[in-house]
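Troubleshooting: if your tokenizer reports a length mismatch, compare your output against this known-good record of 79 residues.
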Amino acid sequence: MRRATVSIPFNTTEMAASETSKVFLYFLNIVLGSLAKLETQLTLSREFGYITKSSEIKESTISVRKLFIGLKKHIFAKR
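Known-good structure output:
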């Protein structure tokens, strides 16, 4: 979980610093993958009883993922 969580801001930074749209989309896809992994890990952790409350964190994760998906759709709409 830590690895996926840390990956999100690091790859967002790389994405923001990219000079081409191809590199930007590459890092955007990595961010989306990390968010999906985090959601899955939260779900499994709750189901296996490792954590009891994950709804607030999961809601935040989903909100952030929706923002990045919206960004991706906007970029593809421009093409």
